[in-house]
Amino acid sequence: MADQTTPLDAGLPAQGGLPAQGAGPEPGKGISRRRLLGTAGATGVVLGAAGAAAGYAAAPAGATPLTSIGTGRAMFHGKHQPGITDPLQAHGHLVAFDLAAGAGRKEAAALLRRWSATAERLMAGEPAGPDDTDVARDAGPSSLTITFGFGHSFFGRTGLEKQRPVALDPLPAFSSDHLDKARSNGDLWVQIGANDALVAFHALRALQKQAGSAARVRWQMNGFNRTPGATAHPMTTRNLMGQIDGTRNPKPTDADFERRVFVPENGEPAWMANGSYVVVRRIRMLLDDWERLSLAQQEAVIGRRKADGAPLSGGTETTPMDLEKTDGDGNYVVPVNAHARITRPDQNGGAAMLRRPFSYHDGFDADGTPDAGLLFICWQADPLRGFVPVQRKLDRGDALSKYIRHEASGLFAVPGGAAKGEYVGQRLLEG
């Protein structure tokens, strides 16, 4: 839960930047093409050549077009995989698979080929295939993204140990860890995000079915964020503690953004060029304990005002934090153990991560304690220089530590995007 901006503040299309739901056309009146395309352009939505008329988005002549949320489309093919720098979506699924006994490199290649073809169709708003379930028939792409990664164990199971990146070495143990091994790691990892819940589920179900006899689900987690258009203007998202979560993400406009987030073209191993490493942590928030704190106590733990995310040293959300500012008694205005102070890149040798989380709520324990928190997802060119040093410092004295618990963890190598005609991971599996 490092103090970094979400993609909303990273120069990317804002999550809250679409018109509010319900603010659509008058009954019986469609949205004009000019208005529809204007909305898409203003929010950074990318439409394919056929736009909203492709696949599931097809509509008979004279029918009301899809809302702006349905028309949002991300591209499957590109330099990087989708789902890394795209805006946060309202619904998400994280799922890890283990290869089945006897399945190896050949089966893995066939699976990634199937998955990539299906992901390309689904992200375009088209059916998954001839046996499509029709779950998302009435919806457009809804900004669906599907991202694939490889875990440490994948390379041993496919005989590709020599191609396993050093950066994929297992994460060290941290004092805040209470990890469930059954819900951690895995051979293959898939991230699904969409602004429509049925579109997201449809993708999850299609990929799970297509795993067939090659792989089985190891664990699966469901998350959510605020729906686009729910706020009057674009805002950094809030977490389940009510805090604005993520005010210092690296921005694509930063000179060192690519270096911090993505493996360079000439990096090692070669198959990871333009890829990234993702750390996934299921962080349970101890909400009953947190909500007993006063507002002032909560703000002291974080180091930022709850209302607007501004640092306690003053200004607005984006104002640089003044770590030396003191009050009338000589105490630091931003406490020395405040979460926002500890996680600042300039307090961690420049370590930075691109965070793209989802909140989660998985019901209640027998005593009524909510099983809720954050599906922490962070991207970096090297986790040993990104996630690890920050988490080690948090271990040594973060005021937030007593209100959270890390319950699951995973580290995955996410290769660069697939070129047209390629599948994700082809350079590894066929290199």
UniProtKB/TrEMBL annotation:
It is found in: Cell envelope. InterPro entries: Dimeric_a/b-barrel, Dyp_perox_C, Dyp_perox_N, Dyp_peroxidase, EfeB/EfeN, TAT_signal. Its EC number is 1.11.1.-. It catalyses: heme b + 2 H(+) = protoporphyrin IX + Fe(2+). Keywords: Heme, Iron, Lyase, Metal-binding, Oxidoreductase, Peroxidase, Signal. One of its GO terms (cellular component) is cell envelope. Its cofactor is heme b. Binds 1 heme b (iron(II)-protoporphyrin IX) group non-covalently per subunit. GO terms for molecular function: ferrochelatase activity; heme binding; metal ion binding; peroxidase activity. Residues 81-225 form the Dyp-type peroxidase N-terminal domain. It comes from the Bacteria. Residues 1-33, 307-327 are annotated as: Disordered. GO terms for biological process: iron import into cell. Residues 236-418 form the Dyp-type peroxidase C-terminal domain. Residues 10-28 have a biased composition (Low complexity). Its main location: other. Belongs to the DyP-type peroxidase family. Involved in the recovery of exogenous heme iron. Extracts iron from heme while preserving the protoporphyrin ring intact. This is Deferrochelatase.
